[in-house]
Amino acid sequence: MSAQPVHQPAPPPAPAAAAQLRERIAAHDRAAAWLPAFERDWSHALETSRQTYDLTPLHETIREWTGRLDTAPAVAAFVAGGMDTTDGVALESVIGTRG
User: Fold this and answer.
1) How wide is the angle at C-alpha 19 spanned by C-alphas 15 and 25, nearest 5°?
2) What secondary structure letter does DSSP report for 14?
3) Helices vs. strands in the chain: H and E counts, helices first
4) pLDDT tens digit string along 8-33?
5) Closest among 38, 24, 30 to 76, alpha carbons compared
6) How far apart are CA 39 and CA 63, in angstroms?
7) How far apart are the first and last CA of the chain?
8) With the CA atoms of 22, 23, 27 and 31 taken in that order, what torsion angle do they form, in degrees rounded to the nearest 10?
9) CB distance 57 to 45 below 8 Å
10) What is the pTM (predicted TM-score) of this model?
11) Helices (H), 11-54
């Protein structure tokens, strides 16, 4: 038996993945808010990649936004389900206020 790595790195996204992802975001019902956020994240990742000659920031941006889009229906169902969140802790209590 030979040693196998425990974690296999994810394969890089397809060359057209960013364009396809942008189309998916534009077709989403939250496109008005998400499209500018994606454009901002993509621009930042692109500039970082240009400076470092590393495509990892671009790949991570694609993976993060793909995950957001893939989980959006579950999040919408949770919110629409009227789950009681009153027993939660306010974020400000955990991280403090920004000032």
Assistant:
1) 140
2) P
3) 4, 0
4) 777 888 889 999 999 999 999 899 99
5) 30
6) 14
7) 56
8) 20
9) yes
10) 0.73
11) 17-27, 31-52
